[in-house]
Every structure is written in C-alpha cells, then in structure tokens.
Amino acid sequence: MTIAAQPADLREADMPAFVEEARRALAEHMPVLSDVAADLHAHPEIRFTEFHAAQRLTAELERAGFDVQRGYAGLETAFVGRWSTPDATAQTTTIAVFLEYDALEGIGHACGHNIIAAAGLGAALAVKDRLTAEGGARANLVVVGSPGEEGAAGKVPMIEHGVLEGVDLAMMIHPGAEDVAGSTSLSRVALDVEFTGRASHAAAHPERGINALDAATLALSAIGLLRQQLPDDSRVHAIVTDGGQAPNIIPEHAALRVFVRSQDRDELLGSIVPRVRACFEGAAIATGCQVLVEERTPAYFSLRPNPTLVGLAEQALVALGREPVRAPEMAGSTDMGNVSLVVPAIHPMLTLVPDCSPHTCEFADAAGGDAAAAVIEHGAALLAATALAAFRDDTIVAEAKATFAG
User: Fold this and answer.
1) Across-strand partners of 191?
2) C-alpha–C-alpha distance, residues 46 and 146, integer Å
3) CA 116, 56, 342 angle in degrees (round to 5)?
C-alpha cells in the first residue's frame, strides 16, 4: 500500500502544533498527574499486588468520564478505561494508551512506572479534553492498566482475553537515560529451576548425600562457558533463590531463577533456551540430582516499533526541545513487545536522568524527585499529540498498518 507524500508532509508541519495543543490541555491536569506519580512512588507495589495504584488510577479515569472495567482478564489489578466521541462507531479509529504501575522488589519504582502511569493518564485526559472541545474528529480511546510488567508479563493474559481487539494503534512512554522515539527490546524467557538431591550430615556422612547446590553451581558454570558460543545480542543471567539450609547439611534442594534473552525471538526459543536447559539437565546427571525446569510466566517478545508512529514521535520530541537519538541495538525486555506484534505500537523513552541505568536506587530516587514532572508532561504531550494526529488524519492509521510487521 502506497501513501501519498502530501499527508505526511502536512503531518510533519502540524506536529509542533499538536504538541503545543496537548501541552495547553495538560496544564490544568499537571498538579493531579504529579500527585498521582508521587502517590504511586510512595506506595510501591510489586507484580499483581498493585491495589493502591489501580484504585487511584481508575478513580481518576472515572472522575474524567471514562467507563472503567476492573479485574480485566481475571487479574485483580488490571483495568480498562474507555471513552468515545458521541458519533464514534466500531469502525472509528481506536487507540490504546498503556499504563504500567508495578514496582521492583526492594528498590521500589526504580523503573519509573509511576511516571509511566501518570504520563499515560495525562495523555488520555488531554486527548479527551481536546476532542470534546473541538469536535469534528471521531475517536475511540482505550486506557489499558497493565499490571505485572516486571517479571510477570501482565499484558499477555490481557491480550489473550481480547484487550487489543478492534484497536488500531497502541502506545506508551517510558523514562530512561536517553530520548529515543523507536526503542527496541529483547525477547526473554524466564526459567525457574529446582534441583533435588538428598540431605546428610556434611561432616559425619557426606558420602550419603546428593548435593543439590553442587548441581546449581555446575549449571551456572556450564552457562558461563556456553556464553562464548551464543550470539552477541544474547544474555543469560541468574540468581540462586535457594542454596540450602545450613553449612553442616548437604543441601537436598537448590533453586535458580534464570532469564534468557535475545533479539531474535525464533533463535531464542528454538536454539538458545534449549541449550541453556541442557546445562541444567547435564548438571543434574553429573551430580545425581533430579531437576525440574519450568516457565512460570509468559515469554516477552522483542519490541517492534512502528516506523510511521516512530516518525511522529521523533517530530514530537523535537517540538518538545529534546534531541532524539538512534535507538540502541538492544535493551531490556518488556511485554509491550508482545503488544507490538499484534498492532502497530510505539514505546518511546524520555530522559529522566542522563547516563543512569534503570533498576537502580539512583533511578528510583529520580522517579520520585523534581525531574519527574518534566518527563510526565513531555511524555503525556508526545502521546497525546500522536493520538490527536491519528484521530484527525485517517491516512496515519492506514500508513501505520501498511508499515506494520507483526
């Protein structure tokens, strides 16, 4: 499908105006949005326990006139908010804005999901305000509250239960260390590994024991050697979740939690993960242990940013006075990647703290500090401007679908 050049040229000229329009609409909401971000930061909740965050966000959506469905896909802290213009139909452009709001164990909002939630909420409020005030454009707006992004892929069961049915475009923003319009991610499989041996007194009768911790140690050594033969974009990292009960007891049980990542989903699933599994199986054979390897959470798939939407996001970043950089070849993993395989999607990154890695105490402090307000406002403005452009210009949706590589 070929898209005429003229609409694209007009969109480029209009994006600064869309951004300014969104920022004007956001001005009255910023006190609430900043308070939402601070509230979530002060009440960090890990995967699928985000009851405070879900209650606050759904209350704000209902206050703004959205119809809210709680407990979506059987997840207590998942929700979907919907708003449409009076003349919208099932064929009207439908855009989904994703909110994340779970924290990390131990260090709270070290990935800035409190900012993601506030910015996504702000984008939804700004779009609704502008389309209500202006009229003329039909729209279906969906706000998806997706819990458990950190380690549980909460978007996957929501997708399986139809949250993206009828959705044309999906978007969210994420704080980071750079301004990136077309961020990518790695596919990821999480493996929970349990070795079972036999306990014995470590001094009196060590020969009667079967050491499960030895099996775990041997498996980690095997993975360390395997890394040399893996593709450059692959990552294997693990923690020991159970290493035994006491030094004078031969460990009868040991456990690992392992993340295996690669940019190529097919390579990950078809080759890399089976080779990592073989490390566990070989360690069990060598030590006489039994081994159980389970995938208890869905796989995360690599994010595929839509080129059409990336172009709009780049223009919005420039209009906001930011300097977008080329997306790094690899990053972490996100279940927004699974969304991007179903519908055209973007996941821009906005600088919160330059050269500061997420998942650190420093990043958690920044997510609750003075720098958060600018990322909330700019992130909301970027999403709102992109959505407004798409609602007002049907060729954007057509072009996004034409460039979609799900």
Assistant:
1) 258
2) 12
3) 45
